Amino acid sequence: MARISITVDGVRYDDDVEPRTLLVYHLREQLGKVGTVVGCDTSNCGACTVLMSDPDGRLVGVKSCAVLAVQADGRQVVTIEGLAGPDNTLHPVQKAFHERHALQCGFCTPGMIMAAVDLLTDNPDPSDAQIREGLEGNLCRCTGYQNIVRAVRDAARDLREAGRSAAPAAPTPLAGEDETPDSGLPREQVPDEVIPQPVP
Amino acid sequence: MTVTAEVGAPRRRKEDARLITGRTMWTENITLPGMLHLAILRSPMAHARITRIDCAPALGQPGVVAAFSGRDVADVQGSLPCAWLVTEDIVHPDHPPLAVDEVRHVGEAVAVVAARSRAAALDALAAVEVDYEPLPVVLDLEQALAEGADLVHADKGTNRSYDWVFDSGAAGTGGSVDEALASAEVVIRRRYRQQRLIPAFMEPRSVVVDPTGDQYSIWSATQIPHILRFLVSVVTGTPEQKVRVVAPDVGGGFGGKLQVTPEELICFVAARRLGKPVKYTESRADSLVSAHHGRDMIQDLELAARRDGTVLGLKVHLTANMGAYLGLVTPGIPLLGAFMYNGIYKFPAYRFECTGVFTNTVITDAYRGAGRPEATYAIERLMDELAVELNLDPIEVRRRNWIRAEEFPFTTVAGLTYDSGDYAAATDRALALLGYDELRREQAQRREAGDPVQLGIGVSTYTEMCGLAPSRVLGSLRYGAGGWESAMVRVLPTGKVEVVTGTSPHGQGHETAWSQIVADELGVPFDDVEVLHGDTRSSYKGLDTYGSRSLAVGGIALYQACQKVVEKAKPIAARLLECDPADLEFTGGRFQVRGHPDGGKTIADCSLAVFTSHDLPDGVEPTLDADAVYDPVNFSFPHGSHLCAVEVDTQTGRVDVRSYVAVDDVGKAVNPLIVEGQVHGGVVQGIAQALFEEAVYDGDGNLLSGTFVDYTLPSAADLPDLVTDRTESPAPGHPLGAKGVGEAGTIAATPAVVNAVVDALRHRGVSDIQMPCTPERVWQALQSASRSDQQGGGS
Description:
The complex is a heterodimer.
Chain A: E1 2-8, E2 11-17, H1 23-30, E3 49-53, E4 59-63, E5 76-78, H2 92-99, H3 109-122, H4 128-134, H5 146-162
Parallel strand pairs in A: 1-5
Antiparallel strand pairs in A: 1-2, 3-4, 3-5
Helix pairs in contact in A: 2-5
Chain B: H1 16-19, E1 36-42, E2 48-54, H2 56-59, E3 64-69, E4 102-103, E5 109-115, H3 118-125, E6 129-134, H4 141-145, E7 160-167, H5 168-171, H6 177-183, E8 186-197, E9 206-210, E10 216-220, H7 225-236, E11 243-246, H8 262-274, E12 278-281, H9 284-290, E13 294-305, E14 311-323, H10 333-338, E15 349-358, H11 372-390, H12 394-399, E16 410-411, E17 417-418, H13 423-434, H14 436-449, E18 453-463, H15 471-476, E19 485-491, E20 497-501, H16 510-522, E21 529-532, H17 550-577, E22 584-587, E23 590-593, E24 601-602, H18 603-612, E25 626-630, E26 639-649, E27 655-665, H19 672-691, E28 722-726, H20 744-761, H21 775-794
Parallel strand pairs in B: 1-12, 10-11, 14-15, 20-21, 27-28
Antiparallel strand pairs in B: 1-5, 2-4, 2-6, 3-5, 7-15, 8-13, 9-10, 9-12, 13-14, 16-17, 18-26, 19-20, 19-25, 22-23, 23-24, 26-27
C-alpha cells in the first residue's frame, strides 16, 4: 500500500492505495466520485477525462484510466462533480451542453465536458475544425458530435464575452444548487471543514 | 387542446441536470453492503470441448469467496431464451449462460470468480484451470452450409437454423418475381455483404443482483427491464413477483442492450447461490468480444426493370449469420428487413428468402435499424446501379418508381400499408440544401481535369417501419410477445403529476418528451411532471424501448391515459363549480362552463378535492389516476432523402465526407431538438458502417477488432457538419401525428455514403466497394478496376 494525498474538487483526501490502482478507480471506489466513468480499457474513449494539476500547478486534461492513483499524489484533481463555480452556477461548458442538446445517454458527457474545458483553456477561440480535433480523444456514440461542437463553440463565445478563462474557478465541493435537484446542502449550511482548503 | 404549447417546442432536456454534473445513477455506481464482485473467465477458443475445468485453485486466492464453472451450476442456470423462433422447425440449440461441456465462440463464459474486490476477482481468474480439446471452427457462411461441413452444434446435424420465405405471388400481395425477371429488359444482379458491426454503446454493461429482502433485485444496464424480469422468472423458475428489475440511467443501447445476457443470469445464479449481493461490470474488451454483434449477412439480389427505368420486381436471398446460438431476437432481425426491401417504390413482384446460419462467432442480434438498414442499403445501391445501366440520373430513376404523395395510404408488394409521406417534397428539399446541380457540375469538371481528388454524390431515399408493433402482426411472425405499450398518470394531491411509462429510455429523452405531452394534455406546468421508468416496482407493465416504438406506441398510451384523467376530473370540477358536467369544457388547462371563459378549475384543484374527498359527488371514485395500454393497429412509416458528397483521393483511397444533407419526415416532432439529435447520431452510425467499422475474426475465430484501437468508432475529427431539415407528413394513426425517429439516420446514411464513394470512382470502372470503404479497400478497388480495364483494352 502507498500513502497518497490528492485534492479532489477542492477537498483533500489522504488514502492508502495499492500501487496498481488507477486514478479513475480510486476516484470512483474510494472517494465516491462516481461522476467520472470508465468506458474502455485502452484510453481510447476519454469518458474518464478529468483535470489534474501538472508540476507547475496548471490544470490539464488527463484520462484518469491512464494515470495511477500514486501519480496523482500531491496534485489537484477536478472532476465533473467539481466543475460548477463557487457561486453554484454551472460552468459555461456545462450550460452550453444543456442548451445545445449536446448529450443523449450522457455517459461520455463527463469526460467530454472536461476535455472541452481543457481545450478551451488552451485555445479560447477555436475553429470548428480545431474543436473537432481537440475532442478527437473522446468518443460519443449518441450525438454524432454535431451538437457537442456547437456547444463548445457557444461556450467559447460565452467565456470570451465574460472575459474569463475556461479553467474552473476555485473548486467547490458543491455543484449548482439552483441548477440541480438534490444537489446537497445550501451553500451557507455547509460546515466549514468541507469548504476547500488550500493545498499545503 | 390547451393553450400551452409544449408539444412541438424545442424543450431543453430535464435529464441533462444530472448528466452534466456527474450525478447520474449508472448500474456500476451501485455498491451494497457485503457486495461481491464477479469476474468471468472467457473462452480463448472458438470451438472446443472442455475436457477438464477446476475452479478450486482460485478459491485459495486472496479475497476470493467463491468460484464455479458451468458444470457446477448446470442444473440451475437454465438456458438463455430466444423469443423469436421464426419457423416451426427452426434449429434452436441450448445456450447455457456458463458453457458446460463445449465452447462455441471466443469470449463465451466458462467460469466465474466472486471476490471482495474487483481486482481480487480479476487476479484469481488466472488460477482457474481449463483444458480444451480443439474442435473444427466454422466461420464462413457458405462453407457452413455446404455438404459435409464441420458443425457448430454436432447434435443438430446442420449449421442451418432456418429458412424463411416471403413471396408476393404466394401472399397475394403481388406477382411472381420469376416472371418479372423473365420478362425484364434489364436485370441487375449483385452480391452485397453487410459486414459485422458492434453496437458499442458507451456504457459497458453492468449487473447488480441483490438476493436479500423479499425480492431478488436486479439492476442492469438494459433496454428491456420488463422483458428481463419476465424471462429471468421463466428461465430460472423464480416466481415473477419475487423478481424486481431496475434499469437505472443506461448509457446507450442501440439494440445492443436489447438482450437477456449470460452475465445477467450468471449474476442471478451467483447471488442466489451465495446469498450476497453481486456485481459484474464488463470491461470494454469483454464487451466487444461477448456482447452481441449486428448485421453480418450476404445479400444476393436480382432487380428486374424495363429500359424506361420502371422496376418490375426484386428477388432477395439473404444468408444471415446467427453466430453460435440464437439470442433474444436473433432469427427475427433479418425478417424485420424482409418487408422493407421494396423501399419507397411500387414495383409489383417481390420474393425474399433468408437462411439463418450458425458459426463459431458471438451471436448477432439487434443493432440500430435491425434488418432495415440492410434492406435499404440493398435497394438504394441497386437503384443507383440501375440508373447507371440506363444512363439516368439516380434521382430520376427513383422518381419514376416511388409512391406519389397522393397515393397514400399505399399497400406495398410486401403487404405493408404505408401511412403517409411525400417523397418528392423531401427529395426536392434535400437537393436544394445540397446544391445538387452545382456539385454535379464540379464533379464533371474534376473528371475532365483528371483531378486526383474526385467528387462523388450519393443518394438514399428511404422509408422504414417504426412503432413496433401491432401484436397481431408479431403473432403472425411467431414473435413471443405483443407490441403494446403502457402508461399510467398519477395526479398527486398538490397537483404535481407522476407519469409511469413502460418505455425504458437510455438517452432518448423520454422524461422531457413525455412531460411535454402531459403538460399539454392536462394543462400542468412542464416542470410539475415527473416521469418514472425502468423500475418494475413502479412501472410493472411495459415492453420497453427499441424499434423506434416509444413515442409511436407509448406516446399514444400516455395520451390516452391523460384523456382518462380529464374525464375523471370532470364531475369533480363540476361539483367545485356547482354546475352540470355536461356544461363543462376542458380548455387551456381549466374546466370552464361553456361560454364563461373566466374562472374555472384546474386539474390541481380537482386533485386536492380528490385528496380531501370531503365533498365528492355520489359514486365518484376518489382518484384521478388513470392508465392505458395501447396496441398499435399499424406501423408508422417515416421517410426521408439523404444526400452525401464525398471527396475521394484516388492516390491514397482516402474518403472525406464533404457535405451531408438529411431531410427526414418523421411526422410531427414532439421535440424538434431531440429529433435533430437522433438524426445526427443515427446518420453518424450509418456513416460509420460505410467508412469505418467492422468486426473482424481471424481464421481461428479470434476477434481481431477486440478493442477501440481496432474497432474504430469515428471521432469528431472524422466527421462533417451535418445539414438537417424536416418535412412533415403527420402519422394518421397517432393523436400527436408522430412517427418515430430513433433509427432513421442509420437506415438512410450507409447507402448514401457508399453510393457517393462509388459515384466518385464510377468513371474509373469501379462499381462496388466492400464496406467499410477504408482507404485500403478504395485503393484496391481502383487498382483492380484499372487492371481489368487494361485487360479489357488488350483483348
